[in-house]
Design goal:
heterodimer; A: alpha/beta; Rossmann fold; B: mainly alpha; binds adenosine-5'-triphosphate; binds magnesium ion
Chain lengths: 316, 265
């Protein structure tokens, strides 16, 4: 049995709207439709999609704070909406836009209250707290009231808070939203460690594809409530029919290079750009170029995942 | 114990607003002086109005000032946080925790009221005692009964305020409800005028309403106007309202929770 099992999961919202002075119409919004996927223990899964695609709705159902209108789901063998309280002890959630910390209390006090809420053994709590304090560099912040923390500092606090009760699964809904590059990097490093050393299963939504590239071997793409891709990052590239680019610096200017499996897309003096399918190996192409031309230098540009995603979104 | 920790944290949190506390004590004292002179004038005309003598009346006025924040007669407690959190949607996080939502916020409110009792309660009473002739209980048992009654008053007040806060689940604009709640609290608690001054049957009615538990009931214990069986009945009525209101809150929260979870807010 997988840790997370989702089968034909659907969620509709009934939205009442004013249409004229008295008349009201009701619309049905299909936020999530017929979603199916499994997540195994220890996986790190990226969950992406454009605004309004249904990412947050999915996470809400996985945590039990929203009841599905169709389908079946089980998290750690538990039906989330039926046994929400049992589940809260086994999972951690970080909503990037909200905080589980108490605004008026120093960070340390929030952590202490959480320890009592989840009845974490004091020694275990101490050990976790020490570790997170060090890894997330929270030491200087522990005595600061949460309302005085910067966004990035608060996010670090929130992530520590979500992990203090040793959850098996951590859901992160846009954990890097609004963070600068350095903070994002540090956060990713921390998440990777948590996943590796504590075997915490991670599911994270994001609009920052670098989060995915640096963290997740598996990525799920949702659009208009339906899963449009579920697989490896590399597979996503292939699926998007994306291309890699071989940049060739010739010794002298020359006519466009002709080699099998690639074609020239741009020429600028002695430099030429050759494009070839991302799924194909670069080796034979590099070999033919090197054998047929006087090459000063070579480099390969990986496809930009953003282009790939954009293409998948726009194809629908 | 979790709830004790919550109450202590809440006590500490309110104690950081020192300037607001000092300003509040000043305001309560000024109002205490003004109302005292009004009551002195009224009781000069009618020395036994409502069964109080003038010392009772002036004492009532100062104790009522002391109660405003202690029992949070018209708001200002942790229920204000609840209303805010419902509006922002953060309430989901509270409802999601594996602890009693009501217990959590009630514990916080009791911690807050302990702080307000020691500051906004005690200080104006001392000021009043320095400026006027006030009546103090002569047995420690009376003080104890008074404190129990104040604590019950806080729970009743909490129940009312929580119900008012919960209307935010359904109403975008709470101003109407808030004004209504405030008027009821001011007039039916004894804060505006002692409830004993209400004429005829209206007096029995307002004394039976939950708001009487906030100001009138504890003060009557202090003044020695309700003793023995009457005192027990007073505390019993407070406890009953406290239980009824908390049950009501529990019910409303269940409905609100279902609405969030099933309808998606
Ligand atoms: N409570 C609700 N009532 C009505 N419609 C809702 C509700 N919650 C979500 N929706 C709708 O469901 C759809 C999916 O929303 P959701 O918040 O899951 O998107 P998302 O993928 O998280 O988007 P974003 O990247 O902007 O956060 C949207 O069309 C949204 O308007
Ligand atoms: Mg979202």
């Amino acid at each position: 049995m997988s840790l997370i099992e989702v089968e034909d999961l659907s969620r509709t919202f009934v939205v009442r709207r004013r249409a004229g002075r008295v008349r009201r119409t009701t619309d049905v919004v299909h936020a999530v439709r017929d979603l199916s996927f499994d997540v195994e223990r220890g996986e790190m899964v990226g969950y992406i999609g454009p605004n309004g695609a249904g990412k947050s709705t999915t996470i809400k159902m996985l945590t039990g704070i929203l009841v599905p209108t169709g389908g079946r789901l089980s998290v750690a063998g538990i039906d989330p909406s039926r046994q929400r309280v049992d589940l809260t002890r086994r999972i951690g959630v970080v909503f990037g836009q909200r905080t589980t910390l108490w605004w008026d209390l120093p960070l340390r006090d929030s952590f202490d209250l959480l320890r009592r809420i989840y009845r974490v053994d004091p020694q275990r709590h101490r050990r976790n707290l020490d570790e997170f304090t060090e890894l997330l560099d929270l030491g200087a912040l522990l005595d600061t009231p949460v309302r005085q923390l910067s966004l990035g500092q608060r996010m670090r606090g929130d992530i520590a808070a979500a992990l203090l009760h040793d959850p098996e699964i951590l859901y992160l809904d846009e954990p890097t939203i609004g963070l600068d590059v350095v903070s994002k990097g540090r956060l990713r490093e921390f998440l990777r460690r948590v996943n590796e050393e504590r075997q915490v299963t991670l599911l994270l939504t994001t609009h920052d594809l670098q989060d995915i590239e640096q963290l997740c071997r598996r990525v799920m793409v949702i659009d208009h409530g339906s899963l449009v891709y579920d697989g490896s990052l590399a597979g996503l590239h292939a699926r998007g029919e994306s291309t890699r680019t071989l940049v060739v610096d010739l010794v002298d200017e020359a006519a466009p290079i002709e080699v099998p499996g690639a074609r020239v897309t741009r020429v600028e003096g002695p430099r030429q750009w050759l494009s070839f399918p991302a799924g194909a190996s670069a080796a034979p192409i590099v070999a033919s170029v090197a054998s047929g031309y006087d090459v000063a230098d070579l480099s390969i540009q990986e496809p930009d995942i953003e282009d790939v995603i954009r293409e998948i979104y726009s194809r629908r | 114990m979790l709830y004790v920790a919550v109450a202590l944290r809440s006590f500490r949190r309110y104690s950081t607003y020192t300037a607001a506390t000092l300003a509040g004590i000043f305001t309560n004292s000024v109002f205490g002086v003004i109302i005292s002179f009004t009551y002195i004038a009224v009781w000069k005309e009618n020395p036994t109005a409502g069964g109080y003598d003038v010392t009772d009346a002036v004492t009532f006025c100062w104790l009522a000032q002391a109660m405003i924040m202690t029992v949070a007669v018209w708001g200002g407690g942790t229920t204000d946080d609840v209303a805010d959190r419902i509006r922002t949607g953060d309430i989901v996080i509270d409802l999601y925790r594996p602890v009693s939502f009501l217990g959590w916020y009630l514990a916080g409110d009791l911690g807050r009221s302990a702080y307000h009792l020691l500051t906004r309660g005690l200080a104006p009473t001392v000021v009043g005692a320095l400026l006027f002739d006030l009546r103090f209980p002569d047995s420690p048992a009376t003080y104890l009964l008074f404190l129990v009654s104040v604590a019950l008053g806080v729970v009743v007040s909490f129940g009312i305020r929580m119900l008012v806060a919960c209307t935010a689940f359904w109403l975008l604009d709470q101003t109407g409800v808030l004004s209504l709640a405030m008027v009821c609290a001011v007039f039916f608690s004894g804060l505006a005028v002692p409830l004993v001054l209400f004429p005829g049957w209206t007096r029995d009615l307002v004394l039976a309403l939950p708001w009487a538990a906030l100001v009138q009931t504890p003060i009557d214990l202090w003044l020695g106007h309700s003793t023995g069986v009457e005192a027990v009945a007073g505390l019993g009525l407070q406890a009953t309202w406290a239980a009824v209101l908390l049950l009501g809150c529990g019910l409303v929260l269940r409905v609100a929770d279902r609405r969030l979870v099933v309808q998606g807010g």
